[in-house]
Write a structure and sequence with these properties.
The protein is an alpha+beta fold. The protein has helices at about 45-50, 140-145, 230-245, 270-280, 295-300, 305-310, 340-345, 350-360, 390-400, 445-450, and strands spanning about 5-10, 10-15, 20-25, 40, 60, 65-70, 80, 85-90, 90-95, 100-105, 110-120, 135, 150-155, 160-165, 195-205, 220-225, 250-255, 290, 315-320, 325-330, 335-340, 370, 405-410, 415-420, 430, 455-460, 465-470, 475-480, 485-495. The longest helix is centred in the middle third of the chain and has 16 residues, at about 230-245.
Length: about 500
C-alpha cells in the first residue's frame, strides 16, 4: 500500500485523500463485482466513487466512468500504473483506470456498529444466510468487517454472522433473549438461540468543517429540500440531519419545498403533517423552528394554501404566508432571509410578489442577505433547463447580483449542488433537493449552465442536506450525506461588506 496521498499515475502527480492500491487487471468474472456498479459519464471522480462505495473496504474505477465496490481485489494481478491513464470524466486532474484496468483505492476505515436490539429469527431467515460467517472467535468488529457493503448485520448464538439491508420481519424480542457473549469480547452482544443481535453499519463521526469553529458568534442552520416522500431515503436523511443539528447546535431548519409528495396536503388537518413530518423528524435537535416554503408539488390542485394554515396552530412550522422574510442576529450583524414562492415567480406572472421582492432587497437592513426559493436559477440536474426558467433568470437573478445577495438556496432538482459564476461571482447557488429523492445530472443542463458563464463546482446525486454556519464576516457551507459525512464544503466572505 502506498502510504502517501500523493500518487504518481502515468507520470502525473494526482492528489487524492485515499490510499492508492495500484492498477489491476480485470476480466469476466469481474475482479471487483458489478453488483453495486455506478456509471457516471459526466461526473465520475475518485471522491464520487468513494462515496458510492462508502461501506466497502475498496473501490475500483475503470474507463474513466465506471465505479465498483468490494472488500477484496487483485485476482488477475497488477499491471503498470501507466495502464490506468484514462482521466476521470468529472475531474481531468485525476486518473480513473483504463480499458479493463481498475485503479483501486482503499476507503477510510471509518465505520462503526450501532446496536439496534434483539430480533426474532426463523426459517426463512430474517437475514439471509448467503455469505454467512461462522467463527468460534466471533465479535462485533469481525462481523462488521465481514459485512462491509451491507447496511445491517446480525450475530446469533455467539458465533454466526449474517449480512443484509433489512431485518425485523419476525419482530423484536426482549433484550434478555440476546444474552450470548461474543467469544472475542465478552462485553459485546452476540445474540441468542434463534435471536439476532442486530447492528447498523454507520460512519464514525468525522471531524467536521465546523469542529474548530469560525471565530466569533455563529448562526447555524440547515436547508432540506424535496423531503416529502416517505421511505428509507427520507428516514436516513432525517437521522443524519438530527445528529448534525445536535452536534452543531443548529438554530433552525429551512424547508425549501416539495414538502409532501406527490400532491401536497388536502387540508390543514391532513394526516401527512404527522406521518411525513412530525413522526419522521423526531430528533430533539429538530424540535426548533422550521421556516417553510412550498414547492411545485405542494401547489398542485391549489393546495399550497393549507400549509400556512397549519402553521397558525403549529409553532414550529413557521409559514405566515407563501412568501415572507425574517431577520436573525449574529454578533453585531443582521442576517436578512427572504423566502420566495417560486412556483408563480418562475413564469414571470406574479408581479405582486416580484414588486415585494424588490422592496425587500432595496430596503433591507441586513448586513447579510440570503434568498431562498424552491426552483433553481441554475442547475445541472435531472430537471434540466426546465429548472432554470426564463422568469427566474430574468427577474430574480439580476436582483441577487445587484443587492449582493450572498447565497441563493433552493431545491427542486433532487441532488446537492454548488454553482457560481466562472469569474467575479457575487452569489453562490446552493441546491439542497435530495431530502427524500435523488436523481442524476443532465448533459443538456450542463451545456446550458456553461453557456451562461456558470461553473458547476460540485454535483452530488444522492440523498443528503446542506448545513450552514454564519459569523459576522464569513459563511461556511457543508454538504452532508446520509451517513453524516461532509462530502464537500466551501467558505466565502460577505459580498455586501466589499
Amino acid at each position: 500500500m502506498v502510504p502517501s496521498v500523493l500518487i504518481v499515475l502515468a507520470c502525473a502527480v494526482v492528489a487524492t485523500g485515499f490510499p492508492y492500491e495500484g492498477c489491476y487487471k480485470d476480466r469476466y468474472p469481474r475482479d471487483i463485482p458489478s453488483s453495486d456498479k455506478l456509471v457516471d459519464s459526466q461526473g465520475m471522480t475518485v471522491e464520487r466513487c468513494s462515496m458510492h462505495c462508502r461501506t466497502y473496504k475498496y473501490f475500483g474505477i475503470q474507463s474513466g466512468d465506471s465505479c465498483r465496490c468490494g472488500n477484496k481485489y487483485g485476482y488477475y494481478g497488477s499491471v503498470s500504473n501507466s495502464e490506468c491513464n484514462i482521466k476521470c470524466d468529472g475531474n481531468k486532474d485525476q486518473n480513473c483506470g483504463g480499458s479493463w484496468r481498475n485503479a483501486v483505492y482503499e476507503n477510510p476505515d471509518d465505520l462503526m456498529a450501532v446496536h439496534l436490539g434483539c430480533f426474532k429469527d426463523q426459517y426463512p431467515r430474517d437475514i439471509s444466510s448467503s455469505g454467512k460467517l461462522v467463527d468460534d472467535n466471533m465479535g462485533v468488529q469481525k462481523c462488521l468487517d465481514h459485512c462491509r457493503g451491507s447496511r445491517y448485520f446480525g450475530i446469533q448464538d455467539s458465533d454466526s454472522c449474517r449480512c443484509g439491508n433489512s431485518y425485523g420481519d419476525y419482530g423484536k424480542a426482549a433484550n434478555g433473549e440476546c444474552t450470548a457473549q461474543c467469544k472475542i469480547n465478552a462485553n459485546d452482544n452476540c445474540g441468542g438461540r434463534w435471536r439476532n443481535a442486530i447492528y447498523e453499519i454507520k460512519s464514525k463521526p468525522l471531524n467536521s468543517v465546523f469542529a474548530s469553529g469560525l471565530p466569533g458568534p455563529k448562526l447555524v442552520f440547515s436547508a432540506l429540500g424535496d423531503w416529502g416522500k416517505p421511505g428509507s431515503g427520507q428516514t436516513h436523511v432525517a437521522a443524519a440531519l438530527g445528529t448534525w443539528s445536535q452536534v452543531h447546535q443548529a438554530d433552525f431548519t429551512l424547508a425549501v419545498g416539495d414538502n409532501f409528495y406527490e400532491t401536497g396536503v388536502s387540508s390543514e388537518n391532513d394526516p401527512k403533517f404527522e406521518t411525513v413530518w412530525r413522526n419522521i423528524y423526531t430528533h430533539p435537535a429538530l424540535q426548533k423552528t422550521w421556516y417553510v416554503i412550498a414547492g411545485n408539488h405542494d401547489h398542485l390542485f391549489n393546495r399550497a394554501k393549507y400549509q400556512p394554515r397549519f402553521g397558525q396552530r403549529e409553532n414550529r412550522w413557521y409559514m405566515p404566508s407563501l412568501y415572507y422574510s425574517f431577520y436573525k442576529t449574529v454578533g453585531t450583524k443582521k442576517v436578512h432571509f427572504v423566502l420566495l414562492d417560486t412556483d408563480t415567480v418562475r413564469w414571470g406572472r406574479d408581479k405582486t410578489q416580484l414588486d415585494w421582492f424588490k422592496r425587500q432587497l432595496q430596503s433591507s437592513q441586513g448586513d447579510w442577505i440570503i434568498v431562498i426559493g424552491h426552483h433553481p436559477i441554475y442547475s445541472t440536474g435531472y430537471h434540466g433547463v426546465w429548472s432554470s426558467t426564463r422568469g427566474m433568470y430574468e427577474n430574480i437573478r439580476p436582483l441577487l447580483e445587484k443587492y449582493k445577495v450572498a447565497l441563493y438556496i433552493c431545491g427542486h432538482d433532487h441532488s446537492l449542488q454548488h454553482l457560481q459564476k466562472s469569474r467575479s461571482h457575487v452569489v453562490d447557488y446552493v441546491i439542497s433537493g435530495s431530502g427524500s429523492k435523488s436523481d442524476s445530472t443532465d448533459s443538456d443542463a450542463q451545456e446550458y449552465v456553461r453557456s451562461r458563464g456558470i461553473k458547476s463546482v460540485m454535483f452530488y446525486p444522492d440523498h443528503g442536506f446542506v448545513g450552514f454556519e454564519i459569523t459576522e464576516a464569513q459563511v461556511r457551507v457543508a454538504y452532508i450525506d446520509t451517513y453524516g459525512r461532509i462530502i464537500y464544503s466551501f467558505t466565502k466572505g460577505n459580498p455586501r461588506a466589499v
